[in-house]
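Support request from a user on the community tier.

User writes: "When I paste my structure tokens into the form, the page sometimes reloads and wipes my input. The last time it worked, I copied everything first. Here is what I submitted, just in case something in the input itself triggers the reload:"
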């Protein structure tokens, strides 16, 4: 049996569609697959550490470290996807751009392994930033509303999954799109012999009307494209020094194969 871990950054209304996708994967692969939907980054890390993550639909800010440090094998990725990161503040904040935040701003992030290393694409200087961590995007927003931080860095897809009232209470100061970087399906190296079967199952998800509908419900209408062990170096190189960058306080612009495209401005509750 394979445990299939879904990154905890999807909107609640996608929950049933992930279960449908899992059912279809089992039919296409002939494998018994147990879906795991961790409640936050901390639980996901525990599942990985306990060896209960044979398959992972990994967040783009976890994937490089999972490949580089844990030896996970790339299987597939959604077509036409690019990771987008946003710096958000309460709507009442005086700041209208990321440059208006104080140098020692208190900034919340989710617990993804590499997310802080991408902050330089959004913030003019991260040397003095006071980093804080929350388990989920929703927890970041709650703590931001309580005045525990000045801003939060969120995946734009996670921000978009918030309800209308919550999004209306926030504004986006800046956002970056990282070309070539996105969610990715990874396989634990202990199950490498099953890589071809599982990869083909992901590629065939859109071949049936039911599968196509499930992909559309998940915002993955174009389906998946194949990756392989040969792509491991490319994924790891999304962030060649992720761990070192975070340990050093996130100073400077990380070297990454993903080129950021950044937009600034106070967009109340709406991405640019």
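"...and here is what came back when it finally went through:"
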């Amino acid at each position: 049996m394979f445990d299939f871990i879904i990154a905890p950054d999807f909107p609640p209304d996608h929950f049933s569609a992930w279960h449908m996708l899992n059912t279809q994967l089992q039919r296409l692969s002939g494998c018994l697959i147990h879906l795991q939907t961790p409640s936050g980054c901390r639980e996901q890390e525990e599942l990985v550490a306990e060896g209960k993550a044979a398959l992972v639909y990994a967040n783009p800010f976890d994937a490089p470290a999972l490949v580089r440090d844990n030896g996970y094998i790339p299987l597939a990725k959604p077509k036409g996807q690019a990771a987008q990161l946003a710096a958000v503040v309460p709507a009442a904040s005086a700041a209208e751009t990321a440059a208006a935040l104080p140098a020692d701003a208190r900034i919340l992030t989710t617990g993804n392994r590499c997310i802080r290393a991408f902050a330089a694409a959004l913030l003019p200087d991260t040397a003095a930033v006071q980093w804080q961590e929350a388990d989920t995007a929703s927890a970041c927003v709650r703590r931001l509303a309580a005045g525990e931080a000045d801003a939060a860095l969120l995946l734009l897809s996670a921000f978009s999954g918030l309800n209308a009232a919550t999004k209306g209470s926030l504004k986006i100061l800046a956002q970056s799109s990282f070309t070539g970087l996105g969610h990715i399906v990874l396989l634990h190296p202990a199950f490498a012999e099953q890589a071809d079967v599982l990869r083909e199952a992901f590629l065939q998800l859109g071949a049936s009307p039911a599968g196509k509908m499930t992909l559309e419900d998940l915002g993955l209408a174009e389906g998946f494209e194949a990756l392989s062990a040969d792509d491991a170096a490319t994924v790891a190189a999304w962030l060649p020094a992720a761990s070192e960058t975070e340990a050093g306080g996130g100073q400077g612009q990380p070297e990454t194969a993903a080129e950021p495209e950044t937009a600034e401005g106070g967009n109340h509750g709406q991405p640019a």
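Agent notes: The reload is a front-end session timeout and is unrelated to the input. The CA atoms of residues 14 and 219 lie 9 Å apart. The radius of gyration is 18 Å. Escalated to web team.
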